[in-house]
């Protein structure tokens, strides 16, 4: 039986088995490829998406567990032609090297900014501590989140 999902404000349907990880459904069925497969067991954060506003590891979340809940992926924050505030801030700060971690970083940052519009650098680091970046781009990422927070306030 198909699972009905609310993704980026749209009703979407997936034929995947209920225990299929949400990440596979997003990438394979819905062609939403921003969330990445890193470790596959909830340790790296590359697959992070928002579910009802909270960051969730989509690699370990069965699709049936999020049926009817509000899922937001990086694609829901803006478009290439019209990036969202956070996306633009990452571009402006050049906050990526390989970029593999960035979608997950941005989704965790988005959840932080929703609950704390003016976070300190320490609060940003704490919020993103579960998102690993093997390229060592952390300082730029923190600056990008600070820039987005400032941009959203002005
Ligand atoms: S791929 Fe999901 S946490 Fe690493
Ligand atoms: S930019 Fe390469 S893993 Fe973060």
Q: Could you explain the architecture of this structure?
A:
The radius of gyration is 15 Å and the shape is globular. It has a five-stranded mixed beta sheet with strand order 2-1-5-3-4, with helices on both faces. The protein has helices at residues 22-29, 85-92, 102-115, 121-127, 138-153; strands at residues 3-7, 10-14, 48-51, 54-57, 70-72. It has five helices and five strands, in the order ββαβββαααα. α2 crosses α5 (138-153). The longest helix has 16 residues, at 138-153. A hairpin with a 2-residue loop joins β3 and β4. With 154 residues, the protein is an alpha+beta fold. The structure holds FE2/S2 (inorganic) cluster (2 copies). Residues 37-40, 42-47, 57, 59 line the site of one FE2/S2 (inorganic) cluster.
Short description:
This protein is α+β, with helices and mostly antiparallel strands and 154 residues long. The chain has five helices and five strands.
Span between termini: 47 Å
**Strand fraction:** 5-15%
Radius of gyration: 15 Å
Overall pLDDT metric: 96
Present as ligands are: FE2/S2 (inorganic) cluster
Overall geometric form: globular
- Give helix % range: 25-40%
Sequence of secondary-structure elements: EEHEEEHHHH
Question: What characterizes the major β-sheet?
Answer: 5 strands, mixed
Number of helices: 5
Q: How many DSSP-defined strands?
A: 5
Within the largest sheet, what's the order of strands? 2-1-5-3-4
pLDDT under 50 segments (min length 5)?
none
Structural class: alpha+beta
